[in-house]
């Protein structure tokens, strides 16, 4: 339920893949075809000469550097900053508050996620099908959404667990006073593997 | 936003990968590379010693690659880069489905892991046929459910009853896509169950 920008991830990964693919094909072609190799060497040599000439022109006032020397440094720093921004954009959106209600200037009421988690684990304490629960709150389109993770016993019917969760969510709606978006995840985990099958049914 | 749209969006996001792992790896490598190049360029500008190699040295190296490397080495390096590029493209363009299925529900978005569904289908088939744990194996794919039953030696199982039970169990999940289960009864039974 995190707020990762998935479209951005796909676009940037695709672009990076294309760049790597092109560079790889060029390198392989340089090994395979002598003309490509010669063109590589001559283009790079002329490029180096040109950059040396440019470095000497367009001097910055009051310093020994030129715009052509400062520009690339700034560009590289910008590119590094953008990469870090992409890195930082992964995940996010989790909040410790299940619900908030602001009551004018008299104050606000905050329902902590721990309260909802305690309600859920209390309600499912006697349930043989559910081995563990965890509840988290996430920001979903400006509102707060809840995620309920229910760890199923091995062989337990997900339908029965989903119906139990449905009742639970209806109870939460009454408790919180208004319906919130809810995601129910029925998972297996270490506890499912260790607890074994429920044979008495 | 309308509740039904939110519900569908939650399900879509929960059953498909966000590519966060690949993005984190790519962004970390890019950030490290750009920071290093920026540091080298700045040091060269200030006239200090380079960390590993200055911009001029890097340029010379880049220009000299085809002359200094064996063609086979160039081809291998190129193939490696191209392969990495294709992998990244694949990660970006494929659907990125996770092994989970949404279950029908009125109020909330419900998503179950495929191994939970497989274990439940196996348990239902086993109870129907009166078999021991381990005699029924179920594999759940994106559009398929395969149930493999190994009956106890000498005791034939009622294949039709198992098929009906499995179909009933799956119908109860009310998944967005109807999945026709395939039940196979193996010819060789198992002993001592």
Question: Any chance you could write out the topology, listing elements then pairs?
Answer:
The complex is a heterodimer of chains A (201) and B (193).
Chain A: H1 6-32, H2 34-56, H3 67-88, E1 94-95, E2 97-102, E3 108-112, H4 113-123, E4 130-140, E5 143-152, H5 158-176, E6 182-187, H6 190-195
Parallel strand pairs in A: 5-6
Antiparallel strand pairs in A: 1-4, 2-3, 4-5
Helix pairs in contact in A: 1-2
Chain B: H1 3-15, H2 20-46, H3 55-68, H4 71-93, E1 100-103, E2 109-113, H5 114-129, E3 136-140, E4 145-149, H6 159-173, E5 181-185
Parallel strand pairs in B: 4-5
Antiparallel strand pairs in B: 1-2, 3-4
Brief write-up:
The complex is a heterodimer of chains A (201) and B (193). With 201 residues, chain A is an alpha+beta fold.
Structure description:
The complex is a heterodimer of chains A (201) and B (193). Chain A is of the alpha+beta class and 201 residues long. Chain A folds into two domains: 6-88, no CATH class; 94-195, Alpha-Beta Plaits (2-Layer Sandwich). In chain A, 54% of the residues lie in helices and 20% in strands. Chain A has six helices and six strands. Chain A has helices at residues 6-32, 34-56, 67-88, 113-123, 158-176, 190-195, and strands at residues 94-95, 97-102, 108-112, 130-140, 143-152, 182-187. In chain A, the strands form two sheets. A four-stranded mixed sheet of chain A has the order 1-4-5-6. A two-stranded antiparallel ribbon of chain A has the order 2-3. In chain A, helix 1 crosses helix 2 (34-56). The radius of gyration of chain A is 29 Å and the shape is elongated. By secondary structure, chain B is an alpha+beta fold. Chain B folds into two domains: 17-93, no CATH class; 100-185, 2-Layer Sandwich (GMP Synthetase, Chain A, domain 3). Helix content of chain B is 56%, strand content 12%. Chain B has six helices and five strands. Chain B has helices at residues 3-15, 20-46, 55-68, 71-93, 114-129, 159-173, and strands at residues 100-103, 109-113, 136-140, 145-149, 181-185. In chain B, the strands form two sheets. A three-stranded mixed sheet of chain B has the order 3-4-5, with helices on one face. In chain B, helix 5 packs antiparallel against helix 6. Chain B starts with a helix and ends in an 8-residue tail after the last strand. The relative contact order of chain B is 0.10. The model of chain B has no long low-confidence stretch (mean pLDDT 89). The chains are: A alpha+beta (201), B alpha+beta (193). The interface between A and B is large, with 81 and 83 residues. Strand 6 (182-187) of chain A pairs parallel with strand 2 of chain B, so a sheet runs across the interface.
């Amino acid at each position: 339920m995190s707020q990762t920008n998935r479209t951005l991830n796909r676009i940037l990964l695709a672009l990076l893949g294309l760049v790597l693919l092109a560079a790889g094909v060029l390198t392989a072609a340089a090994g395979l075809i002598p003309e490509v190799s010669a063109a590589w060497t001559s283009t790079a040599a002329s490029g180096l000469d040109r950059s040396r000439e440019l470095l000497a022109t367009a001097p910055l006032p009051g310093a020994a550097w030129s715009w052509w020397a400062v520009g690339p440094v700034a560009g590289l720093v910008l590119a590094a900053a953008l990469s870090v921004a992409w890195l930082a954009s992964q995940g996010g959106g989790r909040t410790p508050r299940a619900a908030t209600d602001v009551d004018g200037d008299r104050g606000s009421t905050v329902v902590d996620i721990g309260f909802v988690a305690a309600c859920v684990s209390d309600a499912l304490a006697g349930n043989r099908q559910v081995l563990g629960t965890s509840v988290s709150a996430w920001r979903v389109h400006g509102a707060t959404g809840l995620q309920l993770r229910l760890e199923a016993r091995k062989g337990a019917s997900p339908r029965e667990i989903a119906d139990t969760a449905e009742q639970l969510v209806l109870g939460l709606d009454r408790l919180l006073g208004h319906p919130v978006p809810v995601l129910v995840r029925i998972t297996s985990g270490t506890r499912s593997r260790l607890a074994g099958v429920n044979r008495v049914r | 936003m309308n509740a039904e749209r939110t519900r569908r969006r939650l399900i879509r996001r929960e059953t498909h990968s966000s590519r966060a792992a690949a993005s984190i790896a790519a962004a970390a490598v890019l950030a490290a590379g750009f920071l290093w190049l920026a540091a080298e360029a700045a040091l060269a500008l200030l006239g200090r010693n380079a960390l590993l190699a200055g911009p001029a040295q890097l340029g010379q190296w880049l220009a000299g690659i085809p002359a200094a490397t064996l063609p086979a080495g160039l081809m291998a390096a190129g193939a490696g880069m191209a392969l990495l590029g294709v992998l990244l493209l694949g990660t970006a363009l494929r659907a990125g489905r996770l092994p989970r299925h949404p279950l029908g529900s009125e109020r909330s978005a419900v998503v179950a892991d495929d191994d939970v569904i497989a274990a439940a289908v196996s348990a239902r088939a086993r109870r129907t046929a009166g078999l021991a744990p381990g005699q029924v194996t179920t594999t759940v794919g994106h559009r398929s459910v395969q149930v493999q039953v190994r009956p106890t030696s000498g005791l034939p199982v009622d294949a039709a009853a198992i098929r009906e039970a499995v179909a009933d169990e799956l119908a109860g999940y009310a998944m967005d896509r109807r999945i026709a289960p395939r039940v196979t009864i193996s010819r060789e039974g198992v002993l001592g169950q």
